[in-house]
Structure formats: structure tokens, C-alpha cells
Amino acid sequence: xxxxxxxxxxxxxxxxxxxxxxxxxxxxxxxxxxxxxxxxxxxxxxxxxxxxxxxxxxxxxxxxxxxxxxxxxxxxxxxxxxxxxxxxxxxxxxxxxxxxxxxxxxxxxxxxxxxxxxxxxxxxxxxxxxxxxxxxxxxxxxxxxxxxxxxxxxxxxxxxxxxxxxxxxxxxxxxxxxxxxxxxxxxxxxxxxxxxxxxxxxxxxxxxxxxxxxxxxxxxxxxxxxxxxxxxxxxxxxxxxxxxxxxxxxxxxxxxxxxxxxxxxxxxxxxxxxxxxxxxxxxxxxxxxxxxxxxxxxxxxxxxxxxxxxxxxxxxxxxxxxxxxxxxxxxxxxxxxxxxxxxxxxxxxxxxxxxxxxxxxxxxxxxxxxxxxxxxxxxxxxxxxxxxxxxxxxxxxxxxxxxxxxxxxxxxxxxxxxxxxxxxxxxxxxxxxxxxxxxxxxxxxxxxxxxxxxxxxxxxxxxxxxxxxxxxxxxxxxxxxxxxxxxxxxxxxxxxxxxxxxxxxx
Length: 506
Ligand SMILES: Cc1cc2nc3c(=O)[nH]c(=O)nc-3n(C[C@H](O)[C@H](O)[C@H](O)COP(=O)(O)OP(=O)(O)OC[C@H]3O[C@@H](n4cnc5c(N)ncnc54)[C@H](O)[C@@H]3O)c2cc1C
Description:
alpha+beta; D-Amino Acid Oxidase, Chain A, domain 2; eight-stranded mixed beta sheet; 20 strands; binds flavin-adenine dinucleotide
């Protein structure tokens, strides 16, 4: 089976980088196809710490280019998607004789505030933890802290909204389609994919983009039959989620005695997210899972700060991902560069290939712009850069307007609880009202699956966001997995078996 079109670009990988490049390219008028072998964001892009941040720690490694670009992106991304991205203040406690002297941290934060791009986010300030509520959950030895700005993002939704926007701009998006092979044939690439039903299709494109994240080298070796396959260093990072450790809306930035840093972040109303670790990884990225050693490390490190210790039995959920870092030969995992590298491949007259190594969620939009510069050089430029001011689906309201959106949604659908309305606005923004359509009471939302998840939302996700399994819905499109019992998950699974094929075939 062939899709019959000679696309300009074929993108391998539906993580943030693949979807970001596909969206940017489609918006410039290129004909684009993208294949994701599993679900969107099922790789690294749903396993992050979920911060839109400059990366204070990277200043220690003199990564000024990356930090400046990332700092500049914070407010641009917030404006593009104020439903899934919002500012967060971080409390960084310090003590005499701590890991880094206070003056050094202050200097880092001064640079952070002034390197560029900060117009709306408040600057750093010093806190007296004896008086400030941020001191309450901490051990009394912490008397002072710095408080600075960064941002929060729903990572998996950022990916799917880029995929949606790419599709709305004409991209041909294939989920659950693994790229099996890609060969240069005449003036283009001949690409073979296999879908979830085992059907093999062929596609043609003038240029190929390898944005397979942790699989980028596997794609080079397996799909492209190449030998240059040691470009990325895989570094595992794990997180734990525990019942809420503090009520304050601010997050904490902790420095561990081994020089690493970690975050404790308010999460999904009732929880605290703690992470991350940094260890070299050599296995299959698909099978990654938190290790006992990482659990102990995270609990021990957080308990150095919180008065009430974090115990392994407090963990309600954990997740793990691998950073596909460009291998710059650094000796320690946490020292490997977080910057991205784009490499164009192919000699004169040959159909080009662009490989994407590394990258962060925060810099995905700039990475895509840089990729489009290379694509323009290789196959001819089309259209100017356009994504900086363009809203993602549902994000067409003022940056500080989420509260107003919640109020308006409850005004129109008064049967929604405050919590339910807030969640819908935080997931779907202005699309929430479209999803609820003409509902007059909760029964119009259809079957209730648990938590605040109803049939209307499930159908929206299947029809508009390529959701297929309960995992897609409970752990990527939403985090309702934290609130459903095992029986409720099983009921959702059997419901989906009945509807997915029917709806997605339409
Ligand atoms: C623990 C951790 C914490 C992080 N925290 C942050 C943070 O707070 N802020 C931040 O900005 N960044 C953070 N990052 C970095 C960020 O998450 C990653 O850089 C980013 O998600 C990488 O995206 P990607 O698209 O390159 O890879 P992925 O998201 O892994 O996407 C690659 C996709 O390619 C698909 N694929 C592979 N092979 C094929 C094939 N043959 N055919 C079809 N599809 C294929 C895979 O299924 C996968 O979905 C963190 C990373 C980790 C691991």
C-alpha cells in the first residue's frame, strides 16, 4: 500500500522534536508526513520533569548558549499555550557549608534573571524561611532561600498539541506506524512503515528527518543500515510521585550532597513530584523502569530537606525516561551537554537526511526553526519562521487568563465542579467548551469512568488526539490514572476496544 504522494519531508518520531518540526514545516507550506511507532510522547517526551526552564544548573557547565536560548523561550512558549504552560516559582533553600556557597548561587540567579527574555516573570528574591510559608514543610536548619522563576509544562500534551496543529495545517500524521526501512531511490526516499495491524505501507519523500530521540542511533543502524551509530549517550532519569508533601503552590529546588540537584513540585492537586536521577543507560529504552537504587536515592535526598521524611511506601506512581544526549565525551552522565546538534547528511544530488541529536522540551520550537533552516538549505526554503507568535490548539486566551476561562466554563456548564473545570481548562484550554458541546448536566457527558473522566472526553481524545489505549488516555493525554482504581481502568480498556476501531476508521 502506498500513500501515493511525494512528500517534501518524512519525519521519523512523534516526540516533541518530531512533532515540533512537522508543525513548523507544515505551517511553511511543505508537504509533511510523520510516523510514530507507538503513541505520541510515549518515549522521552512524557517522562520529563515537566519544566520550561533555562536550566540553572547548566550555567555550572558554561552552557550559556543553551541557557540563554531556553530562558528566551520561557515566555514565548507560555504565550503559545497558556493552558498547558504556566509560570512557577522555585524555592532554593541554602545553609552555611552547603554544596555551593550562597554567593555563587546568587550569581547564577542574577545571570538567570538577566541573560534575556524575562518580561513578565518576576525576578529572584531572598526568603526568610522562618517567616515565609515555604519554610514550613522543611527542616528548621534551612533558614534562608532564594526564590526564582521558571515554568511548568504538561509535556505529553505539548507533543500531541503540536501533532494536532501539524495535522490541521495539512501534515499526514501516522500514529502506531513504525518506520521499518528508508532507502534513497532516485530523487527521493522510499520509506516503509508497519501499522498496529501489521499492514506495511510505502511512502515517498524528498527529505528524511530522523527525530527518533533515544532511538536515533537505532534508526540509523536498523532503518537506514548505517554504521555511524554512536551519536547519543542515553542517560536515565526517574521520578516518584507521593501524596502532597506541602500545600504551597511553589516548587522546591534541592541541592544534594553529591552535587546533583532535584525538584519537588506540586503535582495534579493532590501530589508532589520528586526527581530526577541521572545515570547512564545501556538497555532497551522501551523497557526502562525506575530501579530500587533510584527510589532509595530520591527518598533519601528529599528527606534531607523535608521535616516529614519521604518513604518508599509513600510512592503512588513513578516513571522513568532516557535523555538522548549528544555524546560529547563527558565523563559523568550529569555533565554531558544538554544542547542539541542537527546533522545534515547526503552528498550533492542525493536526497538529504537530517539527524536530530539531543534537545529539551524548552528549546523544541527553536530546534524546529534551526531544523527548518537546514531543510531550506537542502531542498529549498519555503515561508518565514512563524511559530513564535502562533497559539497551539486551545491556547487562544491571554497568558494570565486561565482563571477567567475556568469561570466562563463553569458559567456555561454549571454542573462542573471547580476542580473538574480547572482540569479541563488546563488540558484543553478554549477547546474544553467544544468538547462539552451542548451538555446540560453531567449525564450528558456520558459514562463516568472514575476521577473526573467522562465518555465525552474519552471520545474527544479518540477522535481528535489519536488515543487508542487506556494508557494513552490515563497517563499521557490526562493524568487521570492517578485517580482511577484498577477496576475502573479495566472498564475503560474494554470500552475502548469497542469504540477505537469504529471511530478512528471514519
Ligand atoms: C528524566 C528527564 C527529565 C527531563 N526534564 C526536562 C525538563 O524538565 N524540561 C525540558 O525542557 N526537558 C527535559 N527533558 C528533556 C526532554 O524530555 C527531551 O529532550 C525530549 O523529550 C526529547 O524528545 P524527542 O522528540 O527527541 O524524543 P522522544 O520523545 O523519545 O521521541 C522519539 C520518538 O520516536 C519514536 N520512534 C523511534 N523509532 C521509531 C521508528 N523506527 N518509527 C517510528 N517512530 C519511532 C519513539 O517511539 C518516540 O516516541 C528531560 C528528559 C528526561 C529523560
